[in-house]
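Hi R.,

As promised on Friday, here is the backbone we talked about, encoded as structure tokens. Could you run it through your design pipeline when you get a chance and send me back a sequence?
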């Protein structure tokens, strides 16, 4: 038995930092109707405020194009921000805002032809500083004119994506810092209050070097952004660049330990000094196709992570809100291990449901006394109005020991005997994948099957008895249980 006791006398602010932003596929997909429907849903039901995507300057967005006549003579570069306007107009209409990742390089001003992903993002530096500066200046002037200073000042501008990975950026660290410097100075010339940051690196890299570069060279820096996944653990600890790491450790065991994301966040917060820290990508695994994304495991790990990183992170952006995602190619089948909270068809995964529960949590955290150090089951206690909310989760990382556990919660009211509500996420609750497997794992589902899958994904309310101020719960492996005691503080 794992024992907990609530201490409602010790209270701290519980900021919904995880709702700042959510990630998505590349910018062009934001013109799709199904993308927009799913994005509006996560805004309305899960509370996400901003959305971030790659490729706002990609060729498919027609932002920057060199015009040639039939004789092959160049007539210069033409700018067209219509597709970007279309996307931002939609975001503002549904109550969201853009977290603008500035990249990749338009082919007409790129120094090389390196392309990534089927949609062809160019990962090179510009041919000249002047051409990049002109694009950034015209883009910034355009959006400030169109949307107004006050609105655009509420957005975020992030320079590039994961420049420490050769896949995303063919330049060096020195190149990136130079690109950041000319970008931020250009943006600030339009409006000094616009929020610009970086380095947008993978596995928590370059943070102290970014801070030192900006402070030493008087370069504006409004926030630190980086990414982390638990599967980054060997890279994070290696001390090597990613190219050298994979060259020397290609077959390295990519295991990691419980609580690794908290350790990463603690280190980054220290390295970032007093700058706000935004994790603009995170998930339970960095690998598309990992079945854990679709299963109750993800819900339990997200619950632990959001509870663990309270107070360490100013903003989180889960990667991604949907399996409408084309970085390799659009994967077939309903559950294929995609990064999304929802499948391509919009069916909610268990991880969607844990974000739904967290969205409905209050903003005051209560102390929890745990009498079983090292147990895989943990408890988060929240005050919301007159109600006491209790979220239990049983989580451990792959390859580590985890068992079904019984927990006993002392709510510190020995005479309290009443009913309370219970919502579960586990193998048998809020788990649409299990129902899909019973259907025979069809690659394509009918309208009726999709409707039934939505139903299978829903949180179902049960009644739980509190006896003499005690709650007893059974927690299956990789499970979450959410208890609400109404009028506890009345």
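Update: got your reply. Pasting your designed sequence below so it's all in one thread:
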């Amino acid at each position: 038995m794992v024992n907990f006791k609530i201490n409602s006398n010790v209270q701290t602010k519980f900021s919904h930092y995880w709702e700042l932003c959510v990630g998505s596929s590349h910018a062009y997909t934001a013109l799709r109707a199904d993308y927009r429907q799913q994005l509006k849903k996560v805004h309305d039901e899960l509370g996400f405020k901003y959305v971030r995507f790659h490729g706002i300057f990609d060729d498919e967005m027609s932002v920057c194009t060199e015009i040639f006549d039939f004789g092959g003579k160049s007539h210069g570069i033409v700018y067209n921000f219509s597709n970007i306007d279309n996307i931002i107009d939609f975001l503002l209409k549904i109550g969201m805002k853009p977290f603008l990742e500035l990249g990749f390089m338009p082919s007409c001003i790129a120094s090389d032809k390196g392309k990534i992903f089927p949609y062809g993002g160019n990962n090179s530096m510009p041919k000249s500083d002047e051409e990049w500066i002109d694009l950034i200046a015209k883009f910034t002037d355009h959006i400030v004119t169109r949307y107004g200073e006050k609105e655009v000042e509420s957005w975020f501008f992030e320079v590039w994506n994961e420049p420490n990975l050769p896949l995303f950026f063919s330049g060096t660290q020195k190149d990136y810092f130079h690109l950041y410097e000319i970008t931020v100075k250009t943006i600030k010339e339009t409006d000094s209050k616009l929020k610009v940051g970086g380095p947008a690196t993978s596995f928590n890299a370059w943070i102290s070097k970014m801070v030192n570069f900006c402070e030493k060279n008087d370069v504006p820096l409004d926030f630190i952004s980086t990414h982390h996944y638990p599967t980054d653990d060997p890279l994070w600890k290696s001390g090597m660049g990613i190219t050298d790491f994979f060259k020397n450790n290609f077959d390295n065991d990519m295991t990691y330990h419980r609580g690794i994301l908290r350790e990463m966040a603690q280190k980054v917060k220290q390295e970032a000094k007093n700058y706000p820290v935004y994790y603009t990508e995170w998930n339970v695994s960095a690998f598309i196709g990992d079945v854990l994304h679709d299963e109750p495991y993800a819900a339990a790990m997200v619950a632990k992570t959001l509870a663990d990183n309270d107070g360490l992170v100013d903003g989180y952006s889960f990667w991604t809100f949907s399996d409408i995602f084309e970085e390799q190619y659009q994967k077939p089948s309903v559950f294929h291990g995609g990064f999304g909270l929802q499948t391509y068809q919009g069916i909610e995964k268990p991880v969607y449901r844990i974000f739904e529960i967290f969205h409905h949590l209050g903003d005051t955290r209560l102390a929890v006394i745990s009498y079983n150090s090292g147990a895989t089951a943990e408890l988060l206690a929240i005050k919301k109005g007159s109600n006491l909310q209790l979220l239990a989760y049983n989580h451990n990382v792959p390859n580590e020991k985890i068992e079904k556990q019984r927990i006993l919660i002392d709510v510190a009211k020995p005479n309290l005997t009443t009913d309370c509500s219970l919502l579960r996420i586990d193998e048998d609750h809020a788990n649409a994948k299990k129902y899909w497997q019973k259907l025979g794992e069809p690659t394509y589902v009918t309208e009726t099957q999709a409707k039934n899958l939505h139903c299978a994904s829903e949180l179902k309310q049960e009644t739980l008895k509190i006896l003499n101020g005690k709650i007893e719960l059974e927690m299956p492996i990789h499970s979450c249980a959410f208890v609400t005691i109404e009028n506890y503080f009345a």
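One thing I noticed while checking it: Residues 245-252 have pLDDT under 50 and may be disordered.

Thanks again,
M.
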